[in-house]
Amino acid sequence: MPAEQTSQIGDVPLAWYRDLAHEGYNVDGRRLSKSVETDSLSNLLSNIDDRSAWRRISDALSGGHIKLSKSDVLLLQRIQAGWLPSDSLEHTWEWDSSTNTDRVASSTEPKRRFLPSQGEAKAVARLVRVLRRTFQTGQPAIEHAPHDYDIWAAPPTEQPNTLGRIRARKPSLPANELSFNPPVEYAEYAKMNISNKSASRLRQMCSYECFTQERFERCLDLYLCPRSHREKTDISPEELLPKLPMPKQLKPFPEIFTQRFLQQRETIDCFSVNCSGEWLAMCTSSGSLLIWDVHTGKNIYHFDFNTKLGSVHWHPTRTHVLVVTMGTCAVVIRSLASFDPGQLRALKSMQKSSEQPVWNCSKAVSVIQHALTVREVAWHRKGRYFATIFGERGITVHDLDFKCSQQPFAKYDSRVMSVSFHPTEPFFFICSPRQVRMYNLKTQELKRKFSNGMTNNMCMCISSSGSSLLVGERSGKTLWFDVESDGESKAIAVRGASVLSVTCHNSYPLIATAAQDGKITVFHMSEPSDSVADPMFVPVNVIQNSHLELARCLDVQFHPRQPWLFMKREPQSIDLYTQK
Amino acid sequence: MTAINDDVDIAVSFVTRLPERYRVSESAIEVPGRLTRYGLSEVVNHLLGNEKPTPFDFLIDGALLRTSLAKLALRLGKSAEATLCEYVPALQPPKAAESATCEEWISSIDGSWAPAIVTGSFDGKAYVWSPKGKLMCELDGHCERVCAVSLAPPAGDAENSCVVISASADGSVRAHELTVTGTKCDIGEVRVFKGHESTVLDVASAIGTRLFASSSVDGTARIWRLEGGELATEKPTKKRKKPSKMTGGDDDDDDDAENNGLGEELVLNGHTDQVCAVSWESSRVLWTGSYDHTIRAWDVETGVEKESNPTNSSVHCLSVAPSGNVFAFGGCDRFVNVWDPRESTSKACLKLKSHEGWVSCLRWNPSNENHIVSTSYDGSVKLWDIRGKVPLHSVTTHNGKNFAVDYHGGERLVSGGDDGNLRFWNVSSTLDD
Fold this sequence. Notes:
heterodimer, A: four-stranded antiparallel sheet, 8 helices, B: mainly beta, five-stranded antiparallel sheet, 3 helices, 46% strand
């Protein structure tokens, strides 16, 4: 019967539909009309006519009739008789009670048969856990390995050995030649290597004589050979060096040669740039003092002293005042325009030899007479005081305003290389070959010693801020000391030749050193942002001098305001390097 | 737009502002892209039918052609289809003309006056030369070298007279009235302006007013009225003893300097280092360049600093174009810097690189606003067109350092340096008329 004709009312009493016009709903929800009731007479007549009417039964669900087949009738009869419905299973067998005599089987059922399995409970719990994790993370917790794999693919990479151990190599297995009776083709080889006599039978073999030795060596191999991975540090030496900025980024600094102040026929002994940077003074071997205009390179003044001049130093704040040393005198020239070297003669004749420096003054000139030859002059930043070194160990400090002198150190204990004032504090630095000493002039006591123990100092320079001390030494190093804190020194350049001159720029963070091999190096000193770290020195320019035999002439000095460098590389000229 | 390489033919239409007889048809002509100035000049001469070729320079979009046509078109982003190319007569290389010898180094030259040329010299004198290079007279009075000279118009309208302002290392500025009749030269009244504490490095007379500006090593620029100062001849008693350059050594020097500010109109304080160059933009605005790596503009009426522009290095010379909008400066960095303040910062201006020494002097051509002449410590004089980056011409004029150069008229150059020779050069364009 088709589905649309079948009532889909389910297992409900048919009495519910007795009074209704329909008898249920088909699968589409349409009402099924009730079959027309036939009266019992017509039923009887139809049953008489139809021989198979006894096999016809009415189907209450569909309202139609179903005709039972012969097999259906047979099945019903078998069921009614209490037989099995199908005759194919019509076999019976005797139950043999003798099989029930087993002791174990006959024992009572164990309790665990009636309890839920704990192993299964564990397995289920594990699966639940896995499923929960899967829901939380969104990834399948169990990944099934693919059953098929690519045999031509690259072999899987070896798992990293996390323990870092290497398995010991297995001893090589005995080969043919180690046989007790090696084949003929191995016999020769066997004789050569092993003192093993071949035997025709194994029982005729004596014990292997190298056994103990080989085991011992094997043990030695095992425990002496370090079989672990070492973390190799693969660092190139360049990486260890600090990252220096490019010189291009550190502009301005002296880069290229610009001007030459050439003094023909005479050797220049010393030079100095005045505080405004307008003039360059130099003294020559023949005893003349020359003043040049820096901007145009023109010689403006020429003074003949007719005696050998030691050095010349401009006043740090006044543009026209300078100190010239000659022999035992230091001459302060107060006004260049009205200065005449002839005035000196009168002043020098008034001299009298004395241990204390003596001042002889006129309007334009002051002559300070020392007991010994004056070697060096160092000005205080403010220009009131200047210090002179005379002889090997004498140091005098002169007061320009009061025209008097004093000797704070009666006799210094070693040769004095150079002296310097601290730019802001009342400190005084004395550079001797072994160390640099810093004295407090106010309290008159030794404040600090700067030395790294091995020094042989040549020259010294205080930075314009007064925080750094730079010392050039004979070994070629330039040492940096922090004046304000007791830190270690720092060698900023190491090369073979001794450093003859070191100088700092007044306003730019520049340092220049001149070495005996003719190299002049300009460094950029970058101050760190925090005061704890040391400054970084970057060599920005190296100026090579080819005239090695003239190395004693080397001297460098910065322009006071511009990033320019004056250098004496050759005996007769001063060169000016400027930024590009 | 098609990519341009040297093999491409470029359609060029030649235009010019020259007279009618130098004009060619403006219709586009296909020329090979590899052509340079010379090739294009040949093309134009061929079109003109000139027997004697006239060299031309070519401008595309205001840029001077110095490489091949294709490269310039590529740089300017021009398409290969149609390029408008303006041609102008090329500048001939400077030809050496007269030469005169001065005993000392020549520090400065002013050739802005037709009847005479004035030079300042290291022997403390200013010299007046005729345009033919004959010495007409010497103006002395300074006790130190003369660092700068400048010419100012006279009080009256006399065409043959002029005021020569000379600045000296003795800290004073002198103004000589000069009248030239033929080859004779009469010196009128001389005024002395004192006030600078140190060497006066530059002096410049203003356009249209009776003012001039001076700058000094003491870090100031000062603006003076030409009628101010002291009369050097009439009041010798009031005139201070020759100012000793050496101030600072003696205490009374400083007091003298303060009392002595006669005729001084305005002191422009602000620079932290010596002021090397002054130049007037107009009668109201003054520009100064200094060693402290700045260029500053000053309002002359109030004396207030208008702006301060940093530069990469010290400024040694500064020159405002006659139009007043663009100016050129040079110095330690060896560039000729051409700067339009309206367009860029002074650090990012047009840098013309060719000199191998400090640029010591720069002047604009009075008749062509695109041309500059520069000179340097390398002894060369270079002519520039600011529309190109390569010098038009370069001549080595002196053996040593060159300190000064100036135009005398639009077609004549005067240069001087540390060999003491005053040299004249003819620079003319190539046209016959």
